[in-house]
Hints:
Order of helices and strands: HHHHHHHHHHHHHHHHH
Distance between the termini: 31 Å
Helix content: over 70%
Radius of gyration: 22 Å
Largest sheet: none
Oligomer: single chain
CATH class: Mainly Alpha
Structural class: mainly alpha
CATH topology: Amino acid/polyamine transporter I
Strand content: under 5%
Amino acid sequence: MESSKSTNTLSRSLKSRHIQMIAIGGAIGTGLFLGSGSAIHTSGPSIILSYLIVGIFCFLLMRAIGELLLSDTSKHSFLDFVKLYLGDRWEFVTGWTYWFCWISLAMADLTATGIYIKYWFPGVPQWVPPLVILLCLFCANMVNVGLFGELESWFSMIKVVAIILLVVVGVGLALFHVKTSSSTASFSNLVSHGGFFPTGAHGFLMSFQMVVFAFVGIEMVGLTAGETDNPELNLPKAINSLPIRIGLFYVGSMIAVMSVYPWNKITTTASPFVQVFSGIGIIGAAGILNFVVLTAAISATNSCLFSTSRTMYALSMGGNASSFLNRLGRNGVPNIALNFSTAFLLIIVVLNYFIPAGVFNLVSSVSTINFVVVWVVLLIVHLKYRRANPKGVKAFKMPGYPIADYISLVFFIFILGFLLVSSTTRVAMIISIVSVATMLLVYQLTQKKS
Length: 450
């Protein structure tokens, strides 16, 4: 039953603990657990520097988003600021692009859950796990936003524990020069097999594509502003802890992995995490990691249901989607928008028989590129905001403004340019350009009609 209130107000049920763990979950994706093997194979130890560089720019991005959100906590999400400073057209394009980002990622992750479950239950049809998991997450999100926060907190905790164990084990092995199945663990492995840049400048640049993919979703904390009980306290705390998370989760884990196993001995067919855990004789390491990556996939889908429903709610409130979609239930959850996103995701259950895995890799690449496009838009919005409000938010100013904004913009635009000229991502880049152009055309046609 829908709420009879005259004004739509999202429930402010997310606590400080929830916001902290959502921010952590957004910074740890399946890209770190699954994609790091191929990333290391492409760039070698230089991927450590790639994670550090991208992490710095993602931190600056989050500081820009944080200052925007704290400048007016009555706003529901960063899309409201896009509307305010760039107008209805770019709110429409950015909002629907962001919605598509998460939908496509969730489709890939839901498909992955079917593959992960088959590790333990090979006889289960691949379409069954995505259906069961999607319906369970849908029910949890329908209850209230607090339950979403609890689920995401526990999902994130599992990922955090796995990475901390990896770092502790890897550093311990390297310090005591423990012999593994194929080598001796040592920090010298980072430079003694072809140097720090063994694949040259091209390999180093290619790693940025994979590293950026690992960071997508980090901005999701910007959608929680309307449902945080104390945004002035909780948002800065979550954003400011980002450098520590980047240092531990990404840089720390890569140092640990390549200290235990030389980069050229890490296989691309299995996760580096499995190889490290197996190196000290942990029985069932593959099964342990399978549980972790399954949790990461479920977490990504859970985040998708939250972010897509709130994005659709914000679009509806801004007049860029049907007003039907901004209805709230008694619990303050945008149920209609949540229903729509869930129904759309059911397509993946039906098509799981027919669409090859390669298509999902392409969709994930398109999604990654679109995330970077959204980041570029948000940085431009922040520049517009500070020009209109030179003093900014006293308690949470963007560090290094405006130079930090411009350098970040140049960096992310460079990434987009490199993805366009790279043969492996050119098709995905063209699809993303066409999708943005289509949204601009749709907006133009709908505006003329109205």
